[in-house]
Amino acid sequence: MKNKIPITGILGGILVIYYIAPILSILTWGGGEGIISSIRDEVVISAIWTSMTTSFFSVCISGIFGIPLAYVLSRNVFKGKNIILFLVFLPLILPPIVSGMVLLTLFGPESILNSFFIFENVYLTQSKMGIILAQVFVSSPFIVIASKVGFDSVDRKLEYASRSLGKTRIETFWKITIPLSIRGILAGIMLAFTRSMGEFGATIMMAYYPRTMPTQIWVSFITEGLDKTFPMVMLLLLSSVIGIVLLSMLGQEVMTNYTPY
């Protein structure tokens, strides 16, 4: 009896082809000539540097606040926990442009908060600060969610044993909980960094200048065509591929097995 490809395999295969076809197309794009010289352009270098630095600081801020939040959500049951989880997921659901508009109501030129910071010579929009605020909003949920998965996977008996041996809660957290959940935390950090690098909608609403790589890609595309966007498109594609490879090394189940309460 001949082996037949099930209909599920055919339908799934079509979707996989749809995923890979655009990637192969951009890799064979004829407009890629002179990519090295294009990357050396000052505008491109500036956009790359802006994206790299703001994404780094965004991940640092997201980790400082997101990892403790993930620990609280993992280790405690309290009234309103589901509401907090909903709020964590909300930035992932909102369209990026809507996220930018929401942030503008809080940090925009007409807001009281922005007026206070301008008095202190700190600009919350049209600045790297504005970019970071946008990136933290859209990327921090990845750290919270993935870190919570990591914390959930830790056997609580090991933490109880550590406490029974005289270790404090903080010592147990750093010596037992963090090492055992590090895969989830690192997965969240990597997802947050790649998301920040590729963020466009919320970022362009908060800061058209200085331009990040996605913003510069858009500007180059509408002014000079697809050829001029090729170098930065390839760099963003490369960063995404690296992120996927690292996530696979850390254990893809960290995200795929997550089920919210």
What are its keywords?
single chain; 261 residues; mainly alpha; MetI-like fold; disordered C terminus
Structure description:
By secondary structure, the protein is mainly α. It has one domain (40-256): MetI-like (MetI-like fold, Orthogonal Bundle), CATH 1.10.3720. Helix content is 78%, strand content 0%. The chain has 13 helices and no strands. The chain has helices at 7-27, 35-39, 42-75, 81-93, 96-107, 112-119, 128-152, 156-164, 169-198, 201-206, 213-224, 226-250, 253-256. Helix 3 crosses helix 11 and helix 7 packs across helix 9 (169-198). It is globular and about 65 Å long. The relative contact order is 0.14. The model is unreliable at 253-261 (pLDDT under 50).
SSE string:
HHHHHHHHHHHHH
* Cα distance spanning the termini: 47 Å
CATH architecture annotation name: Orthogonal Bundle
Which CATH class is shown? Mainly Alpha
Number of helices: 13
Report the β-strand fraction as a percent range.
under 5%
Principal-axes shape call:
globular
As for the CATH topology, it is MetI-like fold
Query: What percent of residues adopt helix (DSSP H or I)?
Result: over 70%
By CATH's scheme, which homologous superfamily applies? MetI-like
* Overall tally of domains: 1
How is the main sheet built? none
- Structural class by secondary-structure content: mainly alpha
Overall average pLDDT:
83
Oligomeric status: single chain
Rounded radius of gyration (Å): 22 Å
**What low-confidence regions span 5 or more consecutive residues with pLDDT below 50?**
253-261
